[in-house]
Write a structure and sequence with these properties.
With 425 residues, the protein is α+β, with helices and mostly antiparallel strands. It folds into three domains: 143 residues, no CATH class; 92 residues, Orthogonal Bundle (Helix Hairpins), CATH 1.10.287; 137 residues, 2-Layer Sandwich (Heat Shock Protein 90). 58% of the residues lie in helices and 13% in strands. The protein is built from nine helices and eleven strands. The longest helix is centred in the N-terminal third of the chain and has 55 residues. The protein is rod-shaped and about 160 Å long. The two termini are 52 Å apart.
Length: 425
């Protein structure tokens, strides 16, 4: 995790450095462009000034004092240090400011403008002693220095500010990593703290939700294994006892029936366990199933009445699983439902309801959800009543796998109604 922290922090710093370098390069290019434009504009102004002075100055053959007088007058008006040389390079006139700047060596070399008659006009750009640069260029270079300093300060400030942000982020990731390791080591009740509302907090919340589901599944499987072991042990013990008695007493039809019944119970238990495991491992196959036809077949086999006014009733699902759900509901009604049981198939909007009704002792309201848990039996329903407590649990699994539901309702006049609801095709 430390390497992740360093990678994140160094990435942030590298991005900031790249931003500073690119920003500095762009600023430098802009300043250079402005400098070139300023130089070009000044050269154009100086050339225009030279054209003006050429027309205003006395001709080249005029006396030197006239040329000097005119040059000084125009220098004062233009506020520019000027000097005038002949075509041969002889100094004809210069202003005091030009001579003083030349003696002190201040500023840049003079700009030489050649007039049409061969004379040369020397111009010194205005100069500020503080900056040592012409006023046109001084602000540009000062701006470059200021921008460079600002980039450096910005880089340092953001790099320092990014450290606690990155450290806090990676610390939360480290906490999440330790929580995952503890959960993986077997501490199924361990959860991580959800701090904040960002992606890391969402990840921690998702981990807690997943851990809760995994813990519930592990507890359910542990309970299933424990209950399955108990349920398998009971018929096996009865088989062992029946076989031992048969060895002692010889062939006995009653013992043979007991052996056959216990074998059938074992077979049913194993089949329901395998079907439950398959439902958890994979989704059912989808095809159009005639639910009305299935209900008619199962009711005929169970010897129960079917009530339905629907011309047809079809759902999308796996026929084998839906048949098993109907069979389990009907067997449950025959086992505990007293003397009156039937099945009603009706439509409720976009749903098809299979209602298996009985006149049995009913289910207490506080237990209408628990009866769908694996291996749960109502108080007073002993093993001798038949069944192993997986039938209704398997019905719920099949219903959920088909985006449906199952519930138990009290029946007016006594008894129960088990309602299997499935989306109509």
């Amino acid at each position: 995790m430390k390497s992740l922290y360093l990678r994140i922090y160094l990435t942030v710093v590298a991005v900031l450095l790249a931003f500073a370098l690119i920003g500095g390069w762009l600023a430098h290019r802009q300043i250079e462009r402005e400098r070139e434009q300023a130089e070009q504009a000044q050269d154009e102004r100086l050339q225009a000034m030279a054209d003006l002075l050429e027309r205003a100055l006395p001709p080249a053959d005029a006396p030197a004092f006239e040329q000097a007088h005119a040059l000084r007058r125009w220098s004062l008006q233009l506020r520019m240090p000027l000097a005038l040389e002949s075509a041969t390079g002889e100094r004809l006139a210069s202003t005091p400011r030009f001579e003083r700047r030349q003696e002190l060596g201040e500023g840049s070399p003079p700009k030489v403008l050649t007039l049409s008659d061969g004379r040369r006009l020397l111009v010194l750009r205005p100069w500020r002693p503080r900056a040592g640069l012409p006023p046109v260029f001084g602000p540009l270079f000062e701006r470059a220095h200021v921008l460079g300093l600002l980039f450096v300060l910005l880089f340092i400030g953001v790099a320092l500010g990014a450290y606690p942000v990155v450290r806090r982020l990676t610390r939360r990731l480290e906490t999440l990593k330790r929580g995952v390791e503890r959960f993986g080591a077997g501490e199924l009740q361990h959860r991580v703290a959800v701090d904040g509302k960002d992606e890391v907090a969402a990840l921690a919340q998702s981990f807690n939700q997943s851990a809760e589901r995994v813990s519930a599944l592990v507890r359910a499987h542990q309970s299933l294994v424990a209950n399955a072991s108990h349920e398998l042990r009971s018929p096996l013990a009865r088989l062992k006892m029946a076989l031992a008695l048969r060895d002692e007493t010889g062939p006995n039809p009653r013992l043979d029936q007991e052996v056959a019944r216990n074998l059938a119970e074992l077979d049913g238990l194993i089949e329901e366990l395998l079907m439950s495991a398959r439902l958890e491992a994979s989704a059912p196959q989808r095809q159009r199933v005639d639910l009305l036809g299935l209900a008619a077949e199962e009711c005929a086999q169970a010897g129960l009445a079917l009530e339905s006014e629907l011309p047809e009733a079809a759902v999308q699902g796996e026929e084998r699983l839906l048949r098993r759900a109907l069979r389990n509901l009907l067997e449950n009604a025959k086992r505990y439902g007293g003397s009156e049981q039937d099945l009603e198939l009706c439509r409720r909007g976009t749903w098809l309801d299979v209602r298996v009704r009985d006149r049995g002792p009913g289910v207490p309201p506080e237990l209408t959800e628990r009866i769908f848990e694996p291996f749960f039996r109502l108080p007073g329903h002993a093993e001798v009543a038949g069944g192993v407590g997986l039938g209704l649990s398997l019905v719920r699994q099949i219903a959920l796998a088909h985006q449906g539901s199952v519930r138990c309702e009290p029946r007016p006049g006594g008894g129960s109604v088990f309602v299997l609801s499935l989306p109509a095709a």
